[in-house]
Design goal:
With 360 residues, this protein is of the alpha+beta class. Among the domains are: 88 residues, no CATH class; 99 residues. Helices cover 47% and strands 17% of the residues. The chain is built from 13 helices and twelve strands. Strands 4, 5, 6, 7, 8, 9 and 10 form a seven-stranded mixed β-sheet that branches. Helix 8 packs across helix 10 and helix 9 crosses helix 12. The protein is globular and about 85 Å long. This is Nucleotidyltransferase-like domain-containing protein.
């Protein structure tokens, strides 16, 4: 696994900061432009924005003699230049440095949710799209094979959803602004709440959350006040995955500021999930993907000097009890030969009596 050139790693850090700053100016996106319109000898600013159907949507902004508004128009020029520069940086990172960009549709979906405030309200991107971000975040080239996805998974801690006392606009409206064929999917439990959405070509957007404890809740979607009418599927081990997430950049368009799980937690969580998969056709394919992503991160994190943190994270999971240990052991036993050295090296920090006692 190769680290990328220092120049590109520096570029990622700068892009990360600039995409975060750019989120604040989302009212007037750099894809639009300010225009002067004169009505009855008075000059006004309007903002023209592409409407996605080849036309323009025009919004009134205010009179030109309003100094504050005109100053804002001046700063917009700088933002627009910054947007073009960020686009060039993303292109350099994906084309020259070999970093991973999401497919275009995924990029647009995540960009729409980000602009609506999902990450500001402490949502976290999980699943394969999050994995794609680790290439830039860690500054390593990850092989493309592990990367294909036909869905976007997002998560939010159950307690946080109530605590933030704010919400993004209705999810179904946001998704339909990207593709009008998005529909809420009925939940398998028969609950009227929905945690997943799908468009006519089968692309899924799913919301997940932490377990609330107790069997009563286990198969029901949880109401999530911050998620604009969407619910979320409570999953075991999700609290472990979502602790201390990191801010990074998704390499789409001019870069999107996103929040993803800590990569060490993502890697260990993948091993746990793989170790618990059912041994049927669907389960086997997913297990292979889980193990590939875990293996690559075990390699990458040791390459970038994050091995100690990975070992601490493993210890934390291991100490959570017998069901965690058996899932981890089953995951490790199934890792591809290619990744075994990297995985076994980290597992070597566990006291041998505990490991042997557990795998027999």
């Amino acid at each position: 696994m190769k680290q990328i050139d220092l120049m590109f790693r520096t570029m990622v850090a700068e892009l990360q900061q600039r995409t975060f700053d750019a989120q604040w100016s989302a009212d007037f996106p750099p894809t639009g432009r300010f225009v002067k319109v004169t009505v009855d000898n008075r000059a006004y600013w309007y903002f023209d924005q592409p409407n996605g159907q080849g036309g323009q949507k025009r919004r009134y902004v205010g009179p030109i003699d309003d100094r504050e508004i005109t100053a804002r128009v001046e700063t917009f020029k700088g933002e627009k230049d910054d947007f073009q520069n960020r686009r060039k940086m993303v292109a350099a990172l994906t084309r020259e440095a070999g970093m991973i960009a999401p497919d275009r549709f995924t990029g647009i979906v995540i960009e729409t949710l980000a602009a609506a405030g999902l990450f500001r309200l402490r949502g976290v991107l999980v699943g394969t799209v999050a994995f794609q971000c680790y290439s830039a975040h860690l500054g390593v080239r990850l092989p493309m094979a592990a990367i294909l996805t036909g869905d976007a998974d997002l998560a939010q801690d159950y307690a946080i959803s109530s605590e933030v006392q704010d919400s993004i606009p209705p999810i179904v409206d946001l998704l339909q602004s990207v593709d009008p064929s998005f529909r809420a999917l009925p939940h398998v439990s028969g609950s009227p709440l929905s945690n997943a959405f799908r468009n006519s070509s089968g692309y899924r957007v799913e919301f997940l959350t932490t377990n609330r404890g107790g069997e009563d809740y286990s198969d029901q979607p949880a109401k999530m006040p911050a998620l604009g009418g969407a619910s979320a599927e409570p999953l075991r081990f999700m609290d472990f995955l979502l602790r201390d997430p990191v801010r990074t950049v998704l390499l789409h368009s001019a870069g999107i500021s996103v929040v993803v799980p800590d990569p060490s937690r993502f890697a260990i969580h993948k091993l746990i999930v793989a170790g618990r998969r059912k041994d049927d056709t669907g389960g086997r394919a997913k297990k292979a993907k889980d193990l590939r992503q875990a293996g690559m991160l075990f390699e990458a994190l040791q390459e970038t000097g994050d091995g100690a943190n990975l070992a601490d994270t493993l210890r934390e999971a291991w100490d959570r009890g017998p069901s965690w240990r058996s899932a981890l052991t089953a995951g490790v036993d199934a890792v591809d030969k290619q990744y075994q050295p990297a995985v076994h090296k980290i597992f070597a920090i566990l006291p041998t009596d505990e490991v042997h006692h557990h795998s027999t």
